[in-house]
Amino acid sequence: MKKAWWKESVVYQIYPRSFQDSNGDGVGDLPGILRRLDYLKELGVDVLWISPFYKSPGGDNGYDISDYQAIQPEFGTMEDFDRLLAGAHARGMRVVIDLVVNHTSKEHPWFIESRSSRDNPKRDYYIWRDGKNGGPPNNWGSNFSGSAWTLDETTGQYYLHTFGDFQPDLNWDNPAVRQEVFRMMRWWCDKGVDGFRMDVISMISKTPEMPDGERKPGSSYGSFAPYVVNGPNVHAYLQQMNREVLSQYDLLTVGECSGLTVDQACRYANADGTELTMAFQFEHMDLDGGESFKWNTRKIDLVELKALLTKWQKGLEDRAWNSLYWCNHDQPRIVSRMGDDSTPALREKSAKALALCLHMMQGTPYVYQGEELGMTNVPFGGLEDFRDVESINAYHELTANHTFTPQRMLECLRYKSRDNARTPMQWDSSAGAGFTTGTPWIMVNPNYTSLNAAEQLARPDSVFHFYQALIRLRHTHEIIVYGSYDLLLPDDPQVYAYTRTLNGQKLLCVCNLTGRPASFALPAGFAGARLLISVGDAPSLDGQVTLGPWDGFALLQDNAEL
Ligand code: TEU
Ligand code: CA
């Protein structure tokens, strides 16, 4: 397998609004991140992915950009960004920035021009259509509730927005749009950034006919997915981007690809390097979705999860490259979702077991801020505690059409809302959690008094030090990066066990992903193997291994004759 730095890296995602406030206005900022670089270096991560900090009205916390080459003042200045980039580079860490080019803000000068008249030169930068029968051009629903079309009175036409009505979709079929985006990307690359995380990049190419979509039972809108996700020209456009921009630099590029299949991933992230270096798939995060999209409180089934992740591990082997993640700014906290946050001891054990299970796989691991502490979901009260546009819009739509009672919808939000990931980073036990001296823009999780970085840095058996150890192992054992993966015990409802194999070495990773004791028969060939790491006490490695709740371990056999 071809070696590459981005295969050997661990990425840390920073959501700037919630990471570190430096001036007491309650909003995290770039100087705040700069101040925490030594913490990140101590954790040992190689790459920082920083979510949007560009000029933006902030309707979707920066995923609605009005100037791609300017910094939103509440996050700082361009000089702050330059200092941050230099500070990361000086510590041997790379910086990947968010590229949000499926849509802009409706305050972007391109859109302001585009909407001004039907014959404006920038009209075709966006997707405009005539209405039909006094309504929108088709029945598509937006990802953030309501129609995906909004009528613009000035010209009497509708514009497409697959997300909020303040996020008009760019028209990638227009070559001028592609050139504008490529020019902007080169500008950041020339500044020295090390890559891009590409927001919903699988949605940039739309089927021009735009027929009505299939309606889910109980919904008044149809799905745009078959006509938008992995659309007709997406690969041609990414190949052009690769030729004209990406291939001119040495970058990590990760496409956020909702609706990704294994076959599609092998195109987006193909090993020949003609598109991106890797992609985010969503299937494991959708396992507890279902009919009501994500709004439920269902649990992920472990046997299904194992089959699914194994499909990705085997399906991409030698053909593409996986990204590994449990958490990001759009997902609830994994320890509350798949682990057990009911007591501090169980919280720490389950956070570690989940981390071990993911970090021994093939692919590039992503750690989302606070995950390395085992940060949990948040005891939000009523709707007034939420800030996320997706959550608030969904609440209004789904209670108004009686899909859910207000009480049930709030339960679903408390379990699944993106805001669970967006409360301030818990640095220490002082008021404001060390995040801010002012009033935070969203509530701090009250468990910060005991669950925080300062406490964990001082305690050798903390979740922080466990993540640090996992990252170190990846840096010192090629087998963890490049070894091939094989699942053991596909039907075991408690234990996730798999091997990795490389050049006569074999690694075994075993995790009890339940709160009940389990037992595991050590496969032949691992007698006398070296223990790399364990959750819970070191297991006794003879024949039948007993695993306590959330116990796990990884073994390395050097001369595996297997
Ligand atoms: O997310 C895209 C996306 O697919 C999400 O809307 C996802 O379906 C949802 O969050 C799951 O609940 C990206 C960004 O990561 C997200 O923060 C933005 O809101 C969105 O694009 C629009 O830019
Ligand atoms: Ca601030």
State the domain count.
4
Beta-strand content estimate: 15-25%
CATH architecture of the largest domain: Alpha-Beta Barrel
Structural class: alpha/beta
Structural write-up:
There is one protein chain. The protein is an alpha/beta fold and 562 residues long. The protein has four domains: 11-102 and 174-381 and 423-469, Glycosidases (TIM Barrel, Alpha-Beta Barrel); 109-160, Oligo-1,6-glucosidase, domain 2 (Alpha-Beta Complex); 382-416, no CATH class; 484-557, Immunoglobulin-like (Sandwich). It has 16 helices and 20 strands. An eight-stranded parallel β-sheet has the order 11-10-9-5-2-1-13-12, with helices on one face. Helix 8 (262-268) packs parallel to helix 9, helix 11 (344-359) runs parallel beside helix 15 (463-476) and helix 12 (389-400) packs antiparallel against helix 13 (406-416). Bound molecules: 1-O-alpha-D-glucopyranosyl-D-fructose (TEU) and calcium ion. The site of 1-O-alpha-D-glucopyranosyl-D-fructose has 14 residues, from loops.
